[in-house]
Design goal:
Length: about 180
């Protein structure tokens, strides 16, 4: 378990805080005391998203819904994910995307219709697995997992589920931190 020693002569950088958040660490900053980073429980997701048609751009009316769970694991360079969907058919692609309003920029493709074909009707797990920064599309200047975590913490990361009927995204959801209670 990493230990960070803080005193008045050294400082935690923003990147260290992002990495601590990304790895699920609980960080307490206190001068001249040891600070331990603690890993979340096996079942805890660090980030979640509720997927609806109302979050799509433009918003659409659909009976489809979904949820997404993400967790940064290991050394902080891998993110696991699980995307569930209900009442959706003909899914083509699933992306983690960035948006600061008005338009999505795809960052990571989680499902590809080119590789997997168009889906049958789904009520359950749509896609699950893991990805690293090497899977990023390169469309933004993000080349480390901490960059994606920063996008999430800034409120600019989304899950987008595309279908043949709604190619811009039938259900979409903002990825948010799943803060412990």
């Amino acid at each position: 378990m990493p230990v960070i020693v803080m005193n008045r002569t050294n400082h935690i950088t923003v990147a260290s805080v992002i990495v601590a958040l990304a790895t699920g660490a609980i960080v307490i900053i206190a001068p001249n005391q040891f600070v331990k980073a603690q890993q979340p429980s096996q079942n805890a997701s660090q980030f979640t998203a509720n997927l609806t048609g109302q979050s799509a751009l433009p918003p659409i009316t659909t009976n489809a819904t979904g949820s997404a769970e993400f967790a940064v694991v290991g050394d902080g360079n891998t993110m696991t994910y699980k995307i569930d969907a209900d009442n959706i058919d003909k899914v083509t692609d699933v992306f983690v995307a960035a948006s600061s309003g008005g338009r999505f920029v795809d960052l990571v493709q989680l499902r590809s219709s080119v590789n997997e074909g168009v889906s049958e009707p789904i009520s359950g797990t749509l896609v699950e697995g893991n990805f690293t920064a090497s899977d990023f599309t390169g469309r933004l200047d993000i080349n480390q997992m901490s960059g994606l975590v920063k996008l999430i913490l800034d409120g600019n990361a989304y899950v987008r589920v595309q279908t043949t009927d709604v190619p811009l995204g039938e259900i979409v959801g903002k990825i948010t931190p799943n803060l412990p209670s």
